[in-house]
Design goal:
The structure holds two protein chains of two kinds.
Chain A (H helix, E strand, L loop, with lengths): L3 E4 L2 E4 L5 E7 L6 E7 L5 E8 L5 E2 L8 E7 L2 E6 L8 E8 L8 E2 L3 E5 L1
Parallel strand pairs in A: 2-11
Antiparallel strand pairs in A: 1-3, 3-8, 4-5, 4-9, 5-6, 7-8, 9-10, 9-11
Chain B lengths: L4 E3 L2 E5 L4 E6 L6 E7 L5 E8 L4 E4 L2 E6 L4 E6 L8 E8 L4 E3 L3 E6 L1
Parallel strand pairs in B: 2-11
Antiparallel strand pairs in B: 1-3, 3-8, 4-5, 4-9, 6-7, 7-8, 9-10, 9-11
């Protein structure tokens, strides 16, 4: 089956630093990747949608300059949390869709970010 | 914004019992999907039901969809302790999923 990996699985960083999270589709090419954020005991909130080679589309209320998304290839998307603050601490999950003809998204295992 | 609302928020049952979770949504959809999430982990896709389908089965899972009421239900039969997890519905409007609030299911052995 389709596998999506994320790296790192958890990261602790100091306030003011930037953190990059990678999302890779391991056995398929993902035309579209999605980034979600999940607070404890809450649901997933879509942050942005990225298509390979083009700028990401951000959801309302998500700061583009704070959450930089790069979808440089059909198998890799990165999310960089810039100038991280404690309120950015969360569980970040990516997903990938092979093409728009299929509805299914394949989810990565998530990255736990803690900003101290 | 969250489109799906799920109830109950939490459900605790004994092993062997059936668990039913409900999901309501607000706008028209292409399909509705159910996912499971174990604590601190990623999501596992369970089942997808298209807008023109009314019921679908997969193993111990049964999903219904009522587009007139904009609601769906997930039934897990003969529950097991390993079914303990959070369950989310997600509506697909073509290019993105919108997740419901989720139901936390605890199956006691």
């Amino acid at each position: 089956g389709a596998v999506v990996s994320q790296h790192p699985s958890w990261v602790i960083c100091k306030s003011g630093t930037s953190v990059k999270i990678e999302c890779r589709s391991l056995d398929f090419q993902a035309t579209t990747m999605f980034w979600y954020r999940q607070f404890p005991k809450q649901s997933l909130m879509l942050m942005a949608t990225s298509n390979e080679g083009s700028k990401a589309t951000y959801e309302q209320g998500v700061e583009k300059d704070k959450f930089l998304i790069n979808h440089a290839s059909l198998t890799l998307s990165t999310l960089t949390v810039t100038s991280a603050h404690p309120e950015d601490s969360s569980f970040y999950i990516c997903s990938a869709r092979e093409d728009l003809r299929t509805y299914e998204q394949y989810f990565g295992p998530g990255t736990r970010l803690t900003v101290t | 914004s969250q489109q799906g609302e799920e109830d109950p928020q939490a459900l605790s049952i004994q092993e062997g019992e059936n668990a039913t979770m409900n999901c309501s949504y607000k706008t028209s959809i292409n399909n509705l999907q159910w996912y499971r999430q174990n604590s601190g982990r990623g999501l596992v896709h369970l089942i997808l039901i298209r807008s023109n389908e009314r019921e679908k089965h997969s193993g111990r899972l049964r999903v219904t969809l009522d587009t007139s009421k904009k609601s769906s239900s997930l039934l897990i039969t003969a529950s097991r302790a390993a079914d303990t997890a959070s369950y989310f519905c997600a509506t697909d409007k073509g290019n993105k999923l919108v997740f419901g609030a989720g139901t936390i299911l605890r199956v006691k052995s």
